[in-house]
Amino acid sequence: MKNRICWIISLNFLFVKYKLKKLYKPIFIAGPCVIETFDILEEVAKELVRLNNKYGINIIFKSSFDKANRTSLHSYRGPNLEKGLTMLNDIKMKYGLSLLTDIHEPYQAEIVGGIVDVIQIPAFLCRQTDLLVAAARTGKIINIKKAQFLSGQDMKYPVEKVRETGNANVWLTERGNTFGYNNLVVDFRNIPDMCSITPHVIMDCTHSVQRPGADGGKTGGNREYVPAMALAAKAFGATGYFFEVHPNPDMALSDGPNMLYLKDLEKVICSLL
Hints:
Elements (H helix, E strand, L loop, with lengths): L1 H22 L3 E5 L6 H18 L3 E4 L18 H15 L3 E4 L5 H6 L4 E4 L7 H8 L4 E5 L10 H8 L6 E5 L2 E2 L5 E2 L4 H6 L5 E4 L5 E2 L8 E2 L4 H10 L4 E7 L13 E2 L3 H6 L3
Parallel strand pairs: 1-2, 1-12, 2-3, 3-4, 4-5, 5-6, 6-9, 9-12, 12-13
Antiparallel strand pairs: 7-8, 10-11
């Protein structure tokens, strides 16, 4: 009788665990670092739709219309605001994907908010009050990336700026901290610290393996560490994962060394479900 009761309890526990896993799926964000061509956007979008349908998830499509913080003046920045948003909107309309993109100046917030579902605040700009307030006023989800020079606990204040503007939909993203010159290191304690501030904490698994400015006027990186970064973040309680992906990262116009090959995304996502 005792063994039977233990068996029933174990079975109920497994059933509840299964139902919770089905109910609370992590947030996934994926896409090319910067908009290069519409063909590349489409190739990525088709794969995200396939994965969404196969695994019952909702990967948010991301790409930047302007990389305003490139190392060199001669580096590719993107198509610009108007052309970039037109291409992103075409992807949304054709493939039914949710969208995320980043803004760098307050005036961009309202325009971008008319198209995307999530507005991202770049790490270097996460304390810019006017930018945060303008983004918050759109009513969209605001994903604030933690600066490379701040702790997880410091992110309380950017979050407060958004919430006190009247927007409670705030996510935080961990993307590593500066470690000497041309290097980043991830202190995974930042994840539970940020989880105490907001319920949604994303791990940027690709920017966290960057080597900033370490590749002769552009950023280097080690994409081979991306899967381990994701699993470590999961162990520390991350509720979502951010991946920059590209059909051929070695030919990408921005952040190639730390982007995942598009063909490898499925395996990494499977390890997190």
